[in-house]
Amino acid sequence: MSYYQVKSLEQYFKHYNKSIREPRKFWDKIADENFTWYQKWDKVVEFDMQEADVKWFLNAKVNITKNCIDRHLSKRGDKTAIIFEPNDPKEEAQHITYNELYDRVTKMANVLKDQGIKKGDRVCIYLPMIPELAVTVLACARIGAVHSVIFAGFSASAVAARILDSQCKLVVTADGGYRGNKTIELKSIIDEALEKCDCVEKTLVVKRTNSTVTMKEGRDEWLQPLLDAAQPNHVAEIMDAEDPLFILYTSGSTGKPKGMLHTTAGYMVYTAYTFKNIFNYEENDVYWCTADIGWITGHSYIVYGPLLNGATTVIFEGVPSYPDFGRFWEVIDKHKVTQFYTAPTAIRSLAKENWEWVDKYNLSSLKIIGSVGEPINEEAWHWYNDHVGKKKSPIVDTWWQTETGGIMISPIPFVTPTKPTYATLPLPGVQPVLMDERRNEIEDNQVVGSLCIKFPWPGMARTIWGDHQRFKETYFTAYPGKYFTGDGALRDEVGYYRITGRVDDVVIVSGHNLGTAPIEDAINEHPAVAESAIVGFPHDVKGNALYGFIILKESGEDRNRENLKKEINEHISSHIGPIAKLDKIQFVSGLPKTRSGKIMRRILRKIAEGDFSNFGDTTTLLNPEIVDEIKNERL
Ligand code: WTA
């Protein structure tokens, strides 16, 4: 029996039970039967969840790109690996076959080597959603360099902090990037970032927008001439199962970016397995995930998962609203997309528009539609089901995280009956538990608790780059022996999970995770600001938006408030990026604090939501009178 794909509900329970009773045998078989290895493992897994030490497929040797590309060439050489759909619908789409992908990746690998990049070196990738982004990611993996993709919407100082944290030696960027009717000047952002980064020796620049750029002598080079001169073919580096594959930064409860480190073999096995099951990929399908490769969804389910399965994956450069609100549906119709994977925020923004935008196009190619990034509300779920899925394509509401590497809780299409707003059941190999306030495991159903995972799975992050202590403290200390997700969840009477949202200081705005601490740090640097507290509040389209409570310094008191608000938002944009801007700013004379000096965010959250009914216990507040003032002046 093969465990690679679940085909019925009965089989799901069989596989699930096997994966719990005999996790080693379960993953051993999947890894053994579905990948190309230079050398197999001595041991499937070794772990100490107290110390946050986890290793999978010990001593196995592998290269993930051999599995993404080379092994498909004999059978699928002429099959399209990547369809590139440009921002401008008038620009022709590109179809890149597996043979061409091999050619491009190996040449890029040789370029990186020629630039002195060796196994273990970190390479920063700051590119728009163009094929070069996927090619560079794969070229790094080919030579064993650790890629650190930074979403091309982050500002120069956010980019610099990430480059410095992982000490990248080389940056691959572009002159600019198109997004809807905007052009983003990526190279000049990199120039500014690199003023602070001595570790970077070289910058390779892709030409995309023909923007005017300055090229620094000795550091910056156009990529194309190097590719033209590069040798074809490259013998893939032999990687240990636990060699680092990539770093991807995510938000945390302090201002310092958290570089999640994923390693090679476990991530490979897990993304391939989950892609196959969640998207039920069949040979001639065309799969499209609308995420950006700068986020984990793009890493696992635009690049690695699909290519590991020999799929055709769409890379879309644009946005859902450009040139009009029909763009997603037009692209599905044009490329006959069979699996479509997007975010609730996109669904909500399109559901606001006339549904005729959807009905204009033929969506009959669709078989499965998916959602990721935040809880999908009931209304959006039904709109997606009715207008896009036409009530026949199951919705896979997939819950997972940058830290988990791949999807953890999700319906398996045509197998698991769906239920609106529920991510439903854990995938085989995943052991979720809900914990109560006393840190005990909740056995009952119909209760909300903190979501933890009590057994390792192959795709989990192994550490925070350069800070294992922080990794341990953030994820493995609150509930000793378990991985704590930071999310709350409800389990219903049949064991389905519904994710209720973050229980920590991360707010998800339009699908982007934003730590409130780094935003507060940025605001507090503004000369007129004394202190600030940021919380999330519900927003129709974005899911959540940010509400800032700000105390001004005496010197800032006489300033024009509207100008100040603008300046504060510009400050946030330049420190973090436009995605972190505040929707509402309320100037206050104080913040509710406990006697130990901690801001009581619970109260601020309630005020921002407009829910004044029950602030809970406020007796521990040092300054309870401030609550009324803030409440009365709420925006
Ligand atoms: C949230 C994205 C509800 C959750 C893959 C998680 C979700 C965080 C869902 C991780 C979902 C993701 N339902 N909430 N289907 N998917 N989330 O690291 O709060 O960008 O902890 O990874 O997004 O976001 P990240």
Automatic annotation (TrEMBL):
Which PROSITE patterns does this UniProt record tie to the protein?
Answer: AMP_BINDING
The residues covered by the AMP-dependent synthetase/ligase domain are: 70-463
Specify the Acetyl-coenzyme A synthetase N-terminal domain's residue ranges: 12-68
What molecular function terms (GO) are annotated for this protein? acetate-CoA ligase activity; AMP binding; ATP binding
Q: What is its EC number?
A: 6.2.1.1
- Gene Ontology BP term (one): acetyl-CoA biosynthetic process from acetate
- Pfam families assigned: ACAS_N (PF16177), AMP-binding (PF00501), AMP-binding_C (PF13193)
Which UniProt keywords are present, listed alphabetically? Answer: Acetylation, ATP-binding, Ligase, Nucleotide-binding
Q: The AMP-binding enzyme C-terminal domain covers which part of the protein?
A: 519-598
What SUPFAM superfamilies does UniProt report for this protein, alphabetically?
Acetyl-CoA synthetase-like
Q: Which family does it belong to?
A: Belongs to the ATP-dependent AMP-binding enzyme family.
Record protein name field: Acetate--CoA ligase
